[in-house]
Write a structure and sequence with these properties.
This protein is an alpha+beta fold. It has ten helices and 22 strands. The strands form eight sheets. Strands 1, 10, 11, 12, 15, 19 and 22 form a seven-stranded antiparallel beta sheet that branches.
Length: 368
């Protein structure tokens, strides 16, 4: 059996956008080149990939129950835990993993309440600059301007916060000799731009296999009630490197694999976490069963012919990975002329590798 791991490195072009959470664009400090670097967290990348997968499958994400708890003092409810179904028959739960600990809510509902935990078979990095000199941030102030909208108006509040009458406003503004614009200035916003990479490692042994190891022997991945549901839906009893497991039926795998390949290659941050949309067009992909191969295939190099530090992106087709270059790459990397079907070729590479893995007979193939 070949390596049970697949590695992917994707190179994207990002322009004038915000990988946004609570406080705006996230950054980290790069000590060698002493620059602040924008990034999108691995969790945000993972969420974007999984949303693309379920959209391709025309399904919804698994339902999540967000628990709130009443305060004993009678104050407003306080945020508690988010309870996931921990059901691998949902594609995002199968691919994204989950964890559920015991709680009073589950015990009161008569459900099994021991801890179940499934680690995602996809290890996903943050999306960060290909090189500290090839990405950065800028800042701008915006306005909310309705000066040309006759339906908008200006209301002046007095010192007690009460609206003034039109006559009072008119008299006040005439004495002040000033107009109040129908415009509001927004706080300065930091935006990201440049060439970014993200890495994904896929553990094929666990991709469609859910451990059924009993509670007394380890950490189970499913409750017995969910295990029964999976068996009723045709999941196959088998064994992998980690012990006894249930394997997703082939018909379901054949639907999920193309959707997963599409999600890994062509995702964007379109949730409410991103204020400004960017196509984040892919420029190149490196695919291999060795991590060092994808790292060498898409990299940056410092120029030696200039006095000040400058970096150039490099795509190396001799580094040991299969490399797929798209048409927009020629606009950012000298000498690279991609093909219109590069993403389709990368997609077929992923589909073939994932479909050819012996999910139901892992231990037999390994022993042979």
């Amino acid at each position: 059996m070949n390596s049970p791991y697949l590695y992917l490195r994707g190179l994207k072009h990002v322009e004038h956008t915000v990988f946004c959470v609570e406080d705006g664009q996230k950054t980290y400090y790069e000590p060698q080149f002493r620059r602040s670097q924008p990034f999108s967290s691995g969790q945000q990348v993972k969420r974007s990939i999984l949303e693309r997968v379920v959209n391709e499958l025309h399904q919804d994400l698994a339902p999540v129950d967000f628990l709130w708890k009443l305060d004993k003092k009678g104050d407003a409810p306080k945020e508690d835990i988010a309870v996931q179904p921990c059901d691998p028959t949902y594609p995002d739960q199968l691919l994204g993993g989950y964890m559920k600990a015991s709680s009073k809510a589950t015990k009161s509902n008569g459900e099994e309440s021991f801890v179940v935990k499934r680690r995602s078979p996809l290890s996903i990095s943050a999306m960060r600059p290909l090189h500290p000199l090839l990405a950065g941030t800028d800042a701008e102030k915006g306005t909310f301007d309705r000066s040309n909208n006759p339906n908008s108006k200006v209301t002046l509040l007095d010192q007690d916060g009460n609206p003034m009458s039109p006559e009072e406003m008119q008299e006040y503004l005439e004495n002040l000799d000033k107009q109040l614009p129908k415009r509001k200035f927004l706080d300065k916003q930091t935006r990201a731009y440049g060439l970014f990479v993200y890495d994904v490692a896929i553990d094929l042994r666990r991709l469609f296999s859910v451990s059924t190891i009993p509670l007394q022997k380890g950490e189970p991945e499913v409750y017995d009630s969910v295990k029964e549901k999976m068996q009723e839906e045709g999941w196959v009893e088998s064994e992998n490197f980690f012990g006894p497991c249930l394997v997703c039926p082939e018909g379901q795998r054949d639907k999920i694999i193309p959707a997963l390949a599409e999600g890994l290659l062509d995702w964007q941050i379109t949730s409410n976490q991103a204020r400004t949309f960017s196509l984040m067009e892919p420029l190149a992909f490196a695919l291999a069963d060795k991590a060092y191969a994808v790292a060498g295939a898409i990299r940056a190099e410092l120029r030696e012919d200039v006095e000040n530090d400058q970096a150039v992106p490099r795509i190396d087709k001799e580094a040991g990975a299969d490399v797929f270059v798209t048409l927009p790459a020629s606009g950012y990397i000298k000498g690279e002329y991609g093909s219109a079907d590069a993403i389709e070729q990368a997609r077929e590479w992923l589909i073939n590798r994932m479909q050819s893995f012996p999910y139901e007979n892992q231990t037999a193939v390994a022993a042979g």
